[in-house]
Design brief:
heterodimer, A: alpha/beta, Rossmann fold, 2 domains, five-stranded mixed sheet, globular, B: alpha/beta, five-stranded parallel sheet, two-stranded antiparallel sheet, 48% helix
Chain lengths: 356, 378
């Protein structure tokens, strides 16, 4: 009992206010300190601490051979990381921006994702590929993309997108501990938003591939992830003021998707809205809508509604706020799911498919 | 005083027909079967006496036989595909015989000689060509990655492995095999950038067999390929790839330099793919008969036979005994291939991930249930 009394204040001290970026930094620091096989690789991650300062101070602490500035070649970064796994390392790769990952696409899709199957399970691929993703940050082209669907579609990869600093910390440590390759998507416009983070709560953290109900509700389920978790919670708050009870499910893991948690929610709300920044066609929303319709058809009172970026290349910064779903577009989607009105934008025949 | 090229064991730099540049090529055993015994590279293989050379000769014969068996098995419908290595025996056996257990190998799909030299059982090699697996052997046990099909992708893996050796300081190095077509791939350039920047102990072993399927090497490069690594800051040597002694000497030198901390090394072994690209290819459509006849005279096995016979060795006896060994390997290989009949649908789902995955589990259950229903219905 006296031991417990002593442990309690220590546990409290492990909770501190951290930005999203600092939470990631703390997880990387823990992983580097805890396992000498863990390496960080990327462009400008050393002295500079990364273009977003996410790796700030890590090279000074852990050395140039553990936090490695690489030449500017993304295929080279991921491809050499593959070789490092054959040497027994557990590399964590940073891709500087979402739109820069495509030169590494072959190495990710044809090598990282497939080597475990190619070797009949004899070679594991403990690699994390960190990619800052998403828009609304006033950047030039290639700096605001949401490439998650490409990776979700690739067997052999796991894809996760934390939406809170606590998740950013815990899910990164879980991804590093995984023997499977994990695409870890960081909502870069949330990097400097902060929250209380318990950096010692990893043992109590939910499984990496689980979704979480962030806010309980009864009228409609809203599925979001990454940068739109906060937007979704804002929308739910606004809807509550109008008397609509929105259940917000943070998907967290995009591959595999946790349909169990999502289906349980839809079975009691009967309605689903899924929102993301990425384009609509072939996206997370398409997969979620199809899978939930398969699982919950008889519970659904309305066709699932997708609130997404348009099927266009990411627009110039001047126009991006039209493209990225915001609180009001999500509220509009919620209204559609509740069958209230057609609202602006797509007409109801498009939303409800062949239902009338 | 600088030595003349011949005294350094290089042929006189004759103008390359492609661009007129002078390219000295390391040569220790001529196509006519004349062995050079003086000079710095000759000294590196002085330990390879006639008896040792006879062993290498025998290994090349075995490789050629395995290769012929692979083609035969494909023609008989027992293999999905085969990529012939005929003509490249000196390059592959020569390089492999110089390697140590601590050199991690990253091979291509044509490196049958290298793979056999690493002690991989034919049954393991053939699983891939049979279509029973995408790989075959345990890469950690054999210290050899599965063969790479995406051209050039494996060069980055080898460099990463060698970077790891440099980082952890535990010794060891890596050797990557690549072809002339691969040199055009961005990954190969990136691999050379990373290797040079991190001073990684990696040997790039280029088997320039003159053709990438139908495309001649001239289409890949307007300069001799041996020149290209130098632009990246990597030491590079061109050897007669059909001269097993030159290949061994150059490989030994490269490994020694890597061990001495000199960083990445590059060897261009000039050879010729005597067969087709794969069993699905028809080289008569793009390759002149004269060219094939020219290279037939430069055959890597014939010259060793000529040399050994000249030394008074009973080459027929060596061929007989090599043939017996080759017959044994070929029979083992054939039996292994024909014995691979198991088609377990659950294998589809088995090694996609290392850790449990709900989607895969769900789809496996669904499909196994479907198959069970089919059987019940039948």
């Amino acid at each position: 009992m006296s031991q417990q009394a002593q442990a309690a204040p220590a546990a409290e001290a492990s909770t501190k206010k951290l930005t999203f970026a600092k939470a990631i930094n703390a997880a990387l620091d823990t992983a580097l300190a805890g396992d000498e096989r863990v390496l960080l690789m990327g462009e400008d991650i050393g002295k500079l601490g990364g273009v977003f300062r996410v790796t700030d101070g890590l090279q000074a602490t852990h050395g140039e051979q553990r936090v490695i500035d690489t030449p500017l070649a993304e295929s080279g970064i991921v491809g050499t990381a593959v070789g490092l796994t054959f040497r027994g390392f557990r590399p964590i790769v940073e891709i500087q921006f979402d739109g820069f990952v495509y030169p590494a696409f072959d190495q990710i899709v044809a090598q990282v994702a497939k080597l475990t199957m190619r070797t009949d399970g004899r070679h594991k691929m403990p690699m994390v590929i960190r990619i800052p993703f998403g828009g609304e940050n006033g950047s030039p082209e290639h700096h605001s993309e949401s490439p998650e669907a490409y990776f979700m579609h690739t067997a052999g990869l796991r894809v996760v997108a934390p939406g809170t600093p606590q998740d950013a910390h815990d899910m990164l440590l879980q991804a590093i501990a995984s023997d499977d390759p994990v695409i870890y998507l960081e909502p870069k416009r949330r990097y400097y938003e902060s929250a209380q983070v318990d950096v010692n709560a990893i043992s109590a953290a939910p499984a990496l591939d689980s979704a979480l109900v962030r806010r309980a509700g009864s009228d409609v389920t809203l599925a979001v992830y990454g940068p739109l978790v906060k937007t979704g919670l804002d929308a739910a708050e606004a809807a509550a003021a109008d008397g609509t009870s929105v259940e917000v499910v943070d998907l967290r893991s995009l591959s595999p998707l946790d349909f169990g948690t999502l289906a349980a929610s839809v079975r009691h709300t009967g309605r689903l809205v899924v929102a993301h920044e990425a384009s609509r066609t072939g996206g997370v929303g398409a997969e979620v809508s199809a899978a939930i319709t398969e699982r919950c058809f008889e519970y659904l009172e309305h066709a699932p509604v997708r609130v997404t970026g348009f099927d266009i290349p990411y627009p110039p910064a001047y126009l991006e706020h039209f493209h990225v779903p915001d609180r009001d577009r999500i509220l509009d989607g919620i209204d559609h799911a509740l069958g209230r009105f057609d609202g602006v934008g797509l007409d109801s025949s498009e939303r409800q498919g062949g239902s009338h | 005083m600088a030595l003349a090229p011949s005294e350094r064991n290089f042929t006189d730099p004759t103008p390359d027909p492609r661009d007129g540049s002078a390219v000295p090529t390391l040569s220790l055993l001529t196509p006519q079967g004349v062995r050079t015994t003086n000079g710095p590279y000759a000294e590196r293989v002085a330990d390879i006496d006639d008896a040792e050379l006879a062993k290498l000769y025998s290994q090349m014969i075995v490789q050629r036989r395995i290769d012929a068996e692979g083609t035969a098995l494909q023609r008989q419908g027992q293999l999905a595909l085969w990529a012939p290595s005929k003509g490249q025996e000196a390059a592959q056996i020569g390089a492999a015989s110089a390697l140590r257990e601590t050199d991690f190998i990253f091979p291509t799909y044509r490196d049958h000689g290298v793979i056999h030299s690493r002690g991989v059982a034919p049954a393991e090699v053939m699983r891939q060509w049979r279509g029973a697996s995408h790989g075959g052997w345990d890469p950690h046990e054999k210290k050899m990655a599965p063969v790479q099909i995406i051209i050039g992708a494996q060069t980055l893996h080898a460099v990463g492995y060698a970077m790891g050796a440099a980082f952890d300081g535990m010794g060891g190095s890596s050797v990557v095999f690549l072809g002339d077509g691969a040199t055009s791939q961005g990954d190969v350039s990136e691999a050379m950038v990373f290797a040079a920047s991190f001073h990684a102990p990696v040997l790039f072993f280029l088997e320039n067999n003159q053709f990438a399927i139908s495309e001649p090497v001239e289409l890949q490069s307007r300069i001799p390929l041996v020149e290209r690594p130098r632009g990246f800051g990597i030491r590079s040597v061109r050897v007669d790839g059909n001269d097993i002694l030159a290949v061994v000497a150059a490989t030994r030198e490269a490994l020694e330099r890597m061990d001495a901390g000199e960083g990445p090394q590059f060897i261009e072994a000039v050879t010729f793919r005597q067969g087709a690209h794969t069993t699905a290819d028809d080289p008569t459509k793009y390759r002149a008969k004269e060219l094939e006849e020219h290279w037939a005279k430069l055959d890597p096995i014939d010259r060793v036979e000529t040399y050994l016979r000249g030394r008074g060795m009973d080459t027929e006896a060596i061929v007989d005994s090599a043939q017996k060994e080759a017959d044994g390997v070929a029979a083992e290989l054939r039996a292994a291939v024909i014995g691979m009949t198991e088609k377990d649908p659950e294998m589809l789902f088995k090694h996609v991930y290392s850790e449990p995955h709900p989607r895969i589990a769900e789809q496996r259950e669904e499909y196994m249930g479907y198959l069970a229903d089919l059987e019940d219905g039948a």
